[in-house]
C-alpha cells in the first residue's frame, strides 16, 4: 500500500458537484492498493498514519499526531499512486490492484483507521471520478509505502 499524506486546513471530495466527504483540519490520505498488499500492510499503515507527528505543538514544532490532536482524516482511493514511469511517457498501472481486490482492502483500511483514531473517517467513492479540494497546511506532504518501511 502506498499513501500520500497531506496536512490540510480543510479538504473535501465531490462527485458530480456534490460533496461526499469533507474534513476541517487534519490529514488527507490518498491511498493506492497493489496486489501484494495484506491486512498486515493495513495495520502497519494505520498505526503509522495515526501516530505520525506532523501537527504543531505549543512551541510550533511538528510534534503531535492525529491521536494527540483529535484531528480528522479523509481517505480517497487513488490507483495512480502505483504508476510506473520506467518505460516511455505513458504510465503503466500494472502494479495497481484490480477493483475486486482493491475495494475490499480500501474499505478495511478505512474501518481500521476509524477504529484506531476513534472517529468516523469520511471518504470519496471507490472507483468514481472525483474532484478533491484541499488547502495544504504548511505545505506538509509525506509519501509512505508499506513495502518500503523507512
Compact description:
This protein is 24% helix and 35% strand. It contains three helices and seven strands.
Secondary structural class: alpha+beta
CATH topology: D-tyrosyl-trna(Tyr) Deacylase, Chain: A
CATH arch. level architecture: 3-Layer(bba) Sandwich
Encode the helix/strand succession as letters: EEEHEEHEHE
Individual helix count: 3
> What is the residue-averaged pLDDT?
95
Q: Give the total of domains.
A: 1
Supply the CATH superfamily name: D-tyrosyl-tRNA(Tyr) deacylase
- Radius of gyration (CA) equals 15 Å
Which assembly state applies to the chains in this document? single chain
The major β-sheet equals:
5 strands, mixed
Sum up the overall morphology in one term.
globular
CATH class: Alpha Beta
Question: How much helical structure, as a percent, in the residues?
Answer: 10-25%
The low-pLDDT segments are none
Q: Can you describe what's shown?
A:
The chain is an alpha+beta fold and 150 residues long. The chain has one domain: D-tyrosyl-trna(Tyr) Deacylase, Chain: A (3-Layer(bba) Sandwich). The chain has helices spanning 39-51, 66-69, 99-117; strands at residues 2-15, 18-23, 26-32, 55-56, 62-64, 72-77, 131-145. The strands form 2 sheets. Strands 1, 2, 3, 6 and 7 form a 5-stranded mixed sheet that branches. Strands 4-5 form a two-stranded antiparallel sheet. Helix 1 (39-51) packs parallel to helix 3 (99-117). The longest helix has 19 residues, at 99-117. It is globular. The model has no long low-confidence stretch (mean pLDDT 95).
Amino acid at each position: 500500500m502506498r499513501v500520500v499524506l497531506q496536512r490540510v486546513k480543510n479538504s473535501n471530495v465531490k462527485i458530480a458537484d456534490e460533496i461526499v466527504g469533507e474534513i476541517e483540519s487534519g490529514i488527507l490520505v490518498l491511498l493506492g492498493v497493489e496486489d501484494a498488499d495484506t491486512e498486515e500492510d493495513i495495520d502497519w499503515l494505520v498505526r503509522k498514519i495515526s501516530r505520525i507527528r506532523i501537527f504543531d505543538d505549543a512551541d510550533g514544532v511538528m510534534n503531535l499526531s492525529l491521536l494527540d490532536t483529535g484531528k480528522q482524516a479523509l481517505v480517497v482511493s487513488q490507483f495512480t499512486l502505483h504508476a510506473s514511469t520506467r518505460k516511455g511517457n505513458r504510465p503503466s498501472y500494472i502494479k495497481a490492484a484490480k477493483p475486486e481486490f482493491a475495494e475490499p482492502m480500501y474499505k478495511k483500511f478505512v474501518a481500521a483507521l476509524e477504529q484506531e483514531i476513534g472517529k468516523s473517517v469520511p471518504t470519496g467513492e471507490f472507483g468514481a471520478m472525483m474532484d478533491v479540494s484541499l488547502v495544504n497546511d504548511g505545505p506538509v506532504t509525506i509519501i509512505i509505502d508499506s513495502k518500503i518501511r523507512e
